[in-house]
Amino acid sequence: MEPLSMSDPLPFLRRLFDRAVEVADPMRSLRHALPPKPEGRLVVVGAGKASARMAEAVEAEYGPCEGVVITRYGYARPCQGIEIIEAAHPVPDTAGVEGTRQMLALLQSLGENDTVLALISGGASALLLQPAGDISLPEKQAINQALLASGAPIGQMNTVRKHLSRVKGGQLAAAAYPARMLALLISDVPGDDPTMIGSGPTVGDASTPADARAILQKNGIALPGSVQKVLTGPCQVIAPGDERLTRVENVIYAAPSQSLEAAAELARLEGIDVRMLGDALEGEARDVAATQASEALRLQQEMTAGAPPILLLSGGELTVTRTGDGIGGPNAEFALALALALRGAPGIHAIACDTDGVDGAAEVAGAVIGPETLAKGPDAADALRCNDAHGFFDRIGGQVITGPTLTNVNDFRAILIEPAQT
Predict the structure, then answer these.
(1) Residue 3 confidence (pLDDT) above 70
(2) 3-class secondary structure for the chain?
């Protein structure tokens, strides 16, 4: 391991992020969760940004398999038997609709002696798509875009998605009944709630159409007639005690806490004092940034000369309420708001990235900041005001670009604090 150079901490912070991604790579982690290959017919289905990599890992253990998996454009992996379909994320498209149709047709051919292996990761909410009732794809897209712009927490977004779908909220598992199903999940949601991972296609849910309707109304989202009809009709989401879920086992095999701890171990080897702020933080990105900046400044004031650096680590899923027309995302907006709150304080550097390599709708994982960030970009406050964090970091060279990471365990944030005297 290269020694930590405090003259340039940013490469070290990037190593921490890369380590967090590495331990969540399905090719490294999934085989430990796989049982022996089942006897009889085995069908593999899945959806999410990590799902193609998960399918690749399954076939590395089992050999060629039958199945259909839907992933984001650019996230496909070579598989021997499993068909990989690419579709749009975060706003769904017709490829997702067609892929989901193929998946459901495959499941409907199964019997009680067959086995389904379901591979679910973050991103499945948009990629696994079969609108309920008479809801059209453009109507579903409009609702999705409005929710993304509203700043609604991920839990609320997924509640709405379930009740506007024929596959989410346990309905994918119900479609496979009476076959056995093992669902392997990568968590990208605060608290690792399986009902929220990919909107819970293999997990029962107790929410109601009225809950979804209230969320949309609270956020001022207009409801077309087709959506109103679905949300005032009978509940299609599968209740937790439904018989069709009795043959399903859901296993979360990779989670944000594991990735944060791996990064913490790497930092401790360098003699750094690691402080965990939590792996399930939620809230408006700029507000969380202000809170963490205050904590970083407080800790720095208490540090003595020669004290070991302190590292603040956190995960979770922050949100951005869009009021401007810039290019932003929760990690870049967190980083920009953090830089503004720190006001160029010497000795404090940070990284904020999404472990799937995509922050918001931008093909950028996130950003890094340091004491010089504001001096490089005097328009920082204007950029934050119009939600143009990615544009700002692009102009000053502060973006973190990874390309597809093939996994997804949510956001990764690290703030490195050195004594002010150094």
Answers:
(1) no
(2) CCCCCCCCCHHHHHHHHHHHHHHCCHHHHHHHHCCCCCCCCEEEEEECCCHHHHHHHHHHHHCCCEEEEEEECCCCCCCCCCEEEEECCCCCCHHHHHHHHHHHHHHCCCCCCCEEEEEECCCHHHHCCCECCCCCHHHHHHHHHHHHHHCCCHHHHHHHHHHCECCCCCHHHHHHCCCEEEEEEECCCHHHCCCCHHHCCCCCCCCCHHHHHHHHHHCCCCCCHHHHHHHCCCCCCCCCCCHHHCCEEEEEEECHHHHHHHHHHHHHHCCCEEEECCCCEEEEHHHHHHHHHHHHHHHHHHCCCCCCCEEEEEEEEEECCCCCCCCCCHHHHHHHHHHHHHCCCCCEEEEEEECCCCECCECCCEEEECCCHHHHCCCHHHHHHCCCHHHHHHHHCCEECCCCCCCCCCEEEEEEECCCCC
Sequence letter at residue 353: C
d(CA 417, CA 310): 5
What's the token pair of residue 328?
């932003």
- Asked if pLDDT for residue 5 goes beyond 50, the answer is no
pLDDT in the model for residue 164 = 97
Angle in degrees, CA 185, 188, 194, rounded to 5: 50
Predicted confidence band at 421 (pLDDT cuts at 50, 70, 90)?
low
Residue 383 · residue 348 · CB < 8 Å: no
pLDDT of res. 131: 96
- Asked if 17 contacts 28 with a C-beta cutoff of 8 angstroms, the reply is no
The whole-model pTM stands at 0.92
126-149 core/surface letters (b: 16 or more CB in 10 A; e: else):
bbbbbbbeebeeebbbbbbebbbe
From 71, 154, 159, 64, select the one nearest 120 (Cα to Cα). Answer: 71
Average pLDDT, the chain: 95
Strand partners, 42: 115
- Residue 354 has a pLDDT of 97
**CA-to-CA distance for 107 and 272, rounded, in angstroms?**
50
Residue 4 scores a pLDDT above 60: no
pLDDT at 1 over 80: no
Place of tokens 């020694």: 3
